[in-house]
Amino acid sequence: MLTRDLASIRTGRASPALVEHMKADYHGILTPINQMASISIPDAKMILIQPWDSSSIKSIEKAILTSDLGLNPISDSRVLRIPIPPLTEERRKELTKAVHKRSEDARIALRNLRREGIEKFRQAEKDKAISQDQCTRASEQLQKLTDNFTDKINNIGHAKEKEIMEV
Length: 167
Hints:
Number of domains: 2
Structural class: alpha+beta
Low-confidence stretches: none
Radius of gyration: 22 Å
Oligomer: single chain
Helix content: 40-55%
CATH architecture of the largest domain: Orthogonal Bundle
Number of strands: 6
Shape: elongated
Strand content: 15-25%
CATH superfamily of the largest domain: Ribosome-recycling factor
Strand order of the largest sheet: 3-4-6-5
């Protein structure tokens, strides 16, 4: 989930993940762009969107312009070309902060799951469904799993930050 979430953060290179989950109006229904068009990457600095229904090109263009990515699509009535401009140093720092925040949100969610699990173990012990030793062992195993996933979250976040700061 975190990996997919971070894929939508722009790094200076073209990626279909930047636009594929954006929603555009398609005959009155908000529809993800990847369900309305084919998205390709002809080179490292360009995204090409080819709608299956050419009447939807304006709504796709509007969705991209109103997004917070700062992209300016170029339309030729059949396809949208989206040049990916280089990131400024200030924008890179903002994006790094966004990555850090999303990573922290994932760690918080993980800790909440751990807390709920430990509460369930304690309740099962209180209800005499498991022994105190079983409760302790289960809590320790849950802590090991939590530590393992926390490390994975940290690694994913650091890799994305490195990718953003790469010039």
